[in-house]
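This section describes the prediction task in plain terms. A model, or a person checking by hand, is given the sequence of a single protein chain and must write out its three-dimensional structure as a string of tokens. No templates, partner chains or ligands are provided. The sample shown here is typical of the held-out split.
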Amino acid sequence: MRILFTLIMLLGWTLGQAQNRNVIVTKATATWCPNCGTWAWDYKDALLAEFPSGPMTFIAAHFRNSDLENEASLWFARNINAAGQPTFYINNDWNTVGSGSWNSQLSNVRQEILDKAQGEATVSFDGVAIDGETVSCTVGTNYTAEPGTEYTIAVYVYEDNVDYFQSGRPNAIHPNIMRTSLGAPQGVPYDPATGSYDFQDVIDPAWNKDELGLLAVLYRIDGAEYIIEESTSVANFTAKTSSEDLLDANIFGYTDRDTELIISANDQEYQLTLTDMRGRVVVDTNFTNEVSIQKNLTPAGMYIATFRTNKGFYSQQIFIK
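The expected answer:
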């Protein structure tokens, strides 16, 4: 059966149920730090294995004279009160693990992340684009603000799979290094009456565009601290370029079944690429009219479905139960 209905352009639509809240796990780190490349590296790998496709977004914030530090990573690390390296934080909360304890605490940390992810997400990327070295995005939100409380919204660019020196780790490939912010690291003031916010800035041309992702954060201001209230992320956003290259969203539809996900389109042939939130390709196939994806290939979580022809593409965030 073919199902056709309008989807929100680019990102933000979920399949089958509301998307859970995103949780940011930050590793405060430095390239010169031996422990950052030994037990902390193993702990980071274990967390990524626990959450291959959400609701966790892992970020490496380099500071303390690290070769990979920058204005955004310094601000981010200082805001969560990172006093040393390696240290880990779940949103703003210090994750008190060490070389001898992280393994035994992994199940408790996993549950803490799941607990923080409870509730419906209220922040989403409604559009992303890149033109040369200029990155643009639109962040939508329906967050209910507390009266008399100040909030901001910020967007950060991170790069995955960075081949760079790390003390304690030969041949290190760094995941999700915070590279910069689109605008000021602390973001722009949030107005509950405003439904969307546009961000734009220039990135370093030396970064691998195929490995870039975006992280949007809504902060609640408490004195000098910016408390993470909501967040969302998208990996490999450079697959989505200018609007003139977009296919018509109305020709695509989805249905969720017990054993498979059906993706339908018109009679044209399409290439479908399905990637998880770390940017790893789990499905890459061509189809006409519809394609069946066995769910044993796709653990429950968020994915990006990208349809391509020689005339353009369309990308959509989906949730697979």
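For orientation: The CA atoms of residues 70 and 179 lie 7 Å apart.
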